[in-house]
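Write out this protein's structure.
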Amino acid sequence: MLTQEKQAPALLEATKTIAGSEAIMLGLLQEGVDTIFGYPGGAIMPIYDALYDYREQLHHVLVRHEQGGIHAAQGYARSSGKTGVVFATSGPGATNLITGLADAMIDSTPLVCITGQVFAHLLGTDAFQEADVISISAPVTKWNYQVTEADELPEALAKAFYIAKSGRPGPVLLDITKNAQLQKFDFAGYVPCQHIRSYRPKPIVRKEYIREAAELINNAQRPFVLWGQGVMLGSAEQEFKAFIEKSGIPAAWTIMGAGALPSDHPLNVGMLGMHGNYGPNVLTNECDVLIAIGMRFDDRVTGRLDKYARQAKVIHLDIDPSEIDKNVQTTVPVWGDCKETLPLLTEVIKEKHYPEWLQKFHTYRDTEVAELIRDELYPTSGELTMGEVVQQLNELTNGDAIIVTDVGQHQMVACRYAKLNQTRSNITSGGLGTMGFALPAAIGAKYGAPDRTVVAVIGDGGFQMTLQELGTIMQSGVDVKILILNNRFLGMVRQWQELFNERRYSFVDITSPDFVKVADGYGIPGKQITERDMLKDALQEMLSHKGSFLLEVMVAKENNVFPMVPQGCSVSEIRLK
């Protein structure tokens, strides 16, 4: 039985007898939920029946596949900063959520997933559409729980929302048997969870570590900041900006951290990692103090760990103690929410500037521009490039759009070159690298930020994995701009086969349908372009159109994405071509 040590006052006063399914609706309302993504089925039918009476307060978006539903919930959570909610039925409905759960888990996205389950007395009998979703989802959820009695529901739901959003966020799953949905019980009101005895989502900030970190920073000659999504998850963008500007330290970002500091900020020196910018990668191995903020030293950022920043003292700010020393040995660990720790650190550091050190980043940037970026963003001949498409998009949106990317070459290009003036503007599948993520995530992102332009940048391979969600767009009328960069290949795999497998292109040449005709079948207008002189007008048409629009841009078939740190190499061995 669930227990909570500390409870807030009940939000409903009078005790009344209601079904478990209605208790869920009341709990969702009290948690501030306004949008649900889902797909009905037999085992979750009582919840959908209850939702019918609350459909004015709880907007439900009918997706075309449960994976689309959970990616949409992710997009909603990432653009809004709220907890995403998704419904699915038992058996295949629940198992179709697993990819999205794994994606949300590694990218720290707060979700509450509610699945229906067979009647409690049928559990373990291999009943129709029964699957042990608790065991299946355990490795890819922050917490999961099976509810078999209606009177458990309010407490279980409250705990689910608290765990999903607090500390390092993540996905939570509640599996609710059909009898628990149907049973009536005495409901005395919904009690939000504020504390669980065995759960400490916010570590105690140790002031001695703040002082030690400040001393290292104040004495540094070549300090370097790496930041990740933790800055945004902690809603600490302003605190982070204040720290950067007082310290004067150059700062680079992981793809999950993009947007926390505007792209054109003078101390923003670019993207880290396998396909990141030249300077940030090389100079990681030249800095004397490395300050990591809300990032986890993923292998795509570090390259070979035994050759990663060996010369540097490392300060690691993170809310999750398990990330400290997991991959990179830390000199000073600063546990805690960066919204709390950054102001403490900013207060005790000296105001400084590092013009010569910053100039080294600019020098590497100049080399990168001359040898790579100019031809990628401003070509004058040959086939269209992915980079010039993104650059034209920047000029037309002025960096104010939400860019949702799928996975592959287009993802790396878009993340490197997209101009982002606002936080929560870059939504991508970072840790799991889930093809098919972008289209449903863009739908969710638009619901989470209805006043912003949402552009889904997708490759021809990833688009075909979830293109059925065009039906969701058709039915809901949501306004999503779909930009397909079509190179007629599974491009990232092809690039590796070219560079490391002697051009043995094994099953990466992909044939696609006429995407414009497919979109037209769903009532979505579209256009395909092949020529450079058509690009700007076509992008403007897409952005100006009232409602969703699909633009397919045929880009060079065998362009590679550089810079690149080959797998198994040091970040200092980054290649420009």
